[in-house]
Structures are given as C-alpha cells and as structure tokens.
Amino acid sequence: MFAIPKAKIILLLFSLLVTTSMLAQDTKMVLIKRGAYVPLYGTTDKKTVEVQGFNVDVFPVTNAQFVAFLKKNPEYSRSKIKGLFAEKSYLAHWESDFNYGKNNLSNAPVTNVSWFVAKKYCECQGKRLPTMDEWEYVAMADEKRIDARIKESFNHYILSWYEKPKTYANPVGGTFKNYWGVYDMHGLVWEWTSDFNSIFLSGESRKDKDTDKNLFCGSASINATDLMNYAAFMRYGFRASLKAKYTTRNLGFRCAKDLK
C-alpha cells in the first residue's frame, strides 16, 4: 500500500470544493440584520415579532437560473414533474422542458413554479425559502427607511403595482433598491415563503384553522381600514389562497440563508 503525496491530496480537495461550488449558482445576497416588527395582518394582539439576522437574494430567481437548475435536476422539468408536486400549469408558458422561449426574458423572474420546486431549488443552492416574517420584514423597507409602511406614497406604489398587468415579464432589478439593498420586493411578482400557509385571516389568531377560502377576493378586506393594512391584506390573502402544488403566472420566489 502506497501513500498519496500531501500536495495531491490538497489538489483533490481543492477540486472537490470547486466542483461543489459550481453546482450552486452564484447569486448575490445581502445581509439583513436582526430586528423586530409588528405584523399588519393575521394577529389581533399586535405583538412584536423578532426576526433573526439572515441573508437573502438581492433579486428573485430568473428564468435562466431556473433552467440551469432543471438541467442538473431533470426530474423537476415540465414533462417529468410528478402531479403531487406541481399542477399542470407548471412552467406552462415555457416552450419546452429546458427552453423558456424567445418571448420570456432570461433575466425575468421565473414564475409558474410550485412551492415544492421553489423549496428544492433553494436547497440545491445551499439555501432555503425565506419565512413569511423574514419576507415581510425586508419588504416593509423603502429606499431609506427600514419601515416605510406608514408612508402614503409607499403604499400607493404597492397598490398601483397590484393593478398593473404582466409585470412578471419585466427583468429583475427594475424596481427600487430598498434600505437593505434588495430589489423587487414590490412591483414585479408575488413570492413564495417557506410558511406561506401558516396564517389565516378570517379567525382571531395566526393559528386559527377556521378559514374562509375566498379571502383573497372577499370578507377579510373589511378589516383593512387604511392603505397600509389593505396592501398587507392583499399579500396575506393571496398566500392563504395557495396550496403547495399551485403555480401561477405572477408567482415567483427568491432564496434566503441562515447566518453561519
């Protein structure tokens, strides 16, 4: 039995590290420092929620990034995906399994992706989906303030986006850069969170299971007494209407990562 030279071992380890790094796509992330906020919807006690520090992608995942993921994980392609993990509309706007088509920009956000596949994508990058509280904490910032939710202009901006058609076709990075250095929290697409279905708006608490399934269009809006609450209601109501296998043309995602 012969000994392997130390230099060769180092070279092998370095090659393994490079290969592993190449499997995950290099996506810019920024640090979100630890903080707290009071959710605008889904709780009647108005308790402050603590958000631990974490990293989050600067931009939503794009078509080009997602097709690279599919080529390494073809079992999640449109023709191979199991019905348990995505409904038939999964990537329905693409031309084929690995071709998002000439009518879909490479740097536009990928949409028509289920929660199951979004979760898997993030895991393959060594990341995860952000929690709802993490997402809301980042999304409440405008260009200069950590919490801009009381600003009328900020809420008008969010609500005006809700009325615009086909914003999902725009490239990432086209909206404002917020306080944290994150783009497209508002103005491009809705985004999956890891615990999207952990809140229900018709009851008295975050854990209430007696849910009105039509909240996105109806009854809970009576509690949205101002622009700030109404903008939040629309997000929470939309999430409450989803199931993990659902896909929609205006729903994408970005990844987050715990601090080491």
From TrEMBL:
InterPro entries registered for this protein in UniProt: CTDL_fold, Sulfatase_Mod_Factor_Kinase, SUMF_dom, SUMF_sf
Signal keyword on record: yes
Regions crossing the membrane: none
Signal peptide: 1-24
Keywords: Signal
Ranges where the Sulfatase-modifying factor enzyme-like domain occurs: 30-257
SUPFAM superfamilies: C-type lectin-like (SSF56436)
The protein's name: Formylglycine-generating enzyme family protein
Organism encoding this protein: Flavobacterium fructosi
